[in-house]
């Protein structure tokens, strides 16, 4: 593995071995997230940096951390954005021991890490519920962290009078990774916080990471509703969060989930983005910059 130049007190040049790609392709040359990098021949680190679809990238040392010791680089590359997003969403939503947390999009990149991290945060006395499509119900159940897994493809059951959500009980936090301006990302034409609101208590919080357009407009105008938060994952000074996540991974509480790995080549990138944007990926899509040869 190649060194690394120290550009200034806190900027390092690092060798990039793999990258988990984000939805926003326009950012790939700019502030890209999710690189797994080496900061010295002995340090194996992961985190976020500039231009992660490159063999060498620039990173702030406050935004990287030693990678989990129990993962491969490919697995570690799948972690930074989805796990930082889950960590920040669950923290903002005040998930704690004993909380009941419901996660929409439980089979997706953010959701699969979200359900595991929620279980870690709420402990055995809390509850974790997941919502996903019919074809992923068993997959999510088999992660072994949810008390209940529900199908959004039968909305009449999900929000009907005999909804399983009634037995789940009043929940404290809805972590919504799905609702967006696209009608196909909603339930019966409604964002999930509206569609599920009949199961809310006055204290139930929603943290959404995409959200419908009106919500963004309201937020920009300073009208964010009480108990509803739109969240943009911050990559600033996240080294400490990445350290906590690495320890959750090393204790086995959180396992990286990879949908697919593509080679670092034009057709590989095209296929990787097509897979990601299909919204059918089960876990993360990763680009292997060094084609299987961990450096
Ligand atoms: N705010 C932030 O900081 C931040 C950070 C990261 C990501 N994001 C955004 O968050 C979103 C989620 O990212 P991701 O990587 O987790 O996406 P993803 O992997 O594509 O997630 C797909 C998930 O959405 C579910 N889904 C699709 N249509 C649905 C519907 N109508 N109702 C309920 N669930 C539905 C899928 O379920 P099935 O496949 O089981 O049907 C699957 O669980 C993306 O829009 C991304 O841009 C935001």
- Euclidean distance between termini CA atoms: 5 Å
Radius of gyration: 19 Å
CATH top level of the largest domain? Alpha Beta
- According to CATH, the homologous superfamily of the largest domain is NAD(P)-binding Rossmann-like Domain
Helix content: 25-40%
Small molecules bound: NADP nicotinamide-adenine-dinucleotide phosphate
Query: What ranges have pLDDT less than 50 throughout 5 or more consecutive residues?
Result: 1-5, 25-38
Sheet-strand content, in percent, reads 15-25%
Q: Number of DSSP helices?
A: 10
The total beta strand count reads: 14
Question: Could you say which structural class the secondary elements and strand pairing correspond to?
Answer: alpha/beta
Overall 3D form: globular
Number of domains: 2
Q: Specify the biggest β-sheet.
A: 8 strands, mixed
Mean of all residue-level pLDDT scores: 85
What is the element string, with H for helices and E for strands? EEEEEEHHEHEHEHHEHEHEHEHE
Short summary of the structure?
Residues 1-287 form the Enoyl reductase (ER) domain. InterPro entries: ER, NAD(P)-bd_dom_sf, YIM1/Zinc_Alcohol_DH_Fams. The protein is an alpha/beta fold.
């Amino acid at each position: 593995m190649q060194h690394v130049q120290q550009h200034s007190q806190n900027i390092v040049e690092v060798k990039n071995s793999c990258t988990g790609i984000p939805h926003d392709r326009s950012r790939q040359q700019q502030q890209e997230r999710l690189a797994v990098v080496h900061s010295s021949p002995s340090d194996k680190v992961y985190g976020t940096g500039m231009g992660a679809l490159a063999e060498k990238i620039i990173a702030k040392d406050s935004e990287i951390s030693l990678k989990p010791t129990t993962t491969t680089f490919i697995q570690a590359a799948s972690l930074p954005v989805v796990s930082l997003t889950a960590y920040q969403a669950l923290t903002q939503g005040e998930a704690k021991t004993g909380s009941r947390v419901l996660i929409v999009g439980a089979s997706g990149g953010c959701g699969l890490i979200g359900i595991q991290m929620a279980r870690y945060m709420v402990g055995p006395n809390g509850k974790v519920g997941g919502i996903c499509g019919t074809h992923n119900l068993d997959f999510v159940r088999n992660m072994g962290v949810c008390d209940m897994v529900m199908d959004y493809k039968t909305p009449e059951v999900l929000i009907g009078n005999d909804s399983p959500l009634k037995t789940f009980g009043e929940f404290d936090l809805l972590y919504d990774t799905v609702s967006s301006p696209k009608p196909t990302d909603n339930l019966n034409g409604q964002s999930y916080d509206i569609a599920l609101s009949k199961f809310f208590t006055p204290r139930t919080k929603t943290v959404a990471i995409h959200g419908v357009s009106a919500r963004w407009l309201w937020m920009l105008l300073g009208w964010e509703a009480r108990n509803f938060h739109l969240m943009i994952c911050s990559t600033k000074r996240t080294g400490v969060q990445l350290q906590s996540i690495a320890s959750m991974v090393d204790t086995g509480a959180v396992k990286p989930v990879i949908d697919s790995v593509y080679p670092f080549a034009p057709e590989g990138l095209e296929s990787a983005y097509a897979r990601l944007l299909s919204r059918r990926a089960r876990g993360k899509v990763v680009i292997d910059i060094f084609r299987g040869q961990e450096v």
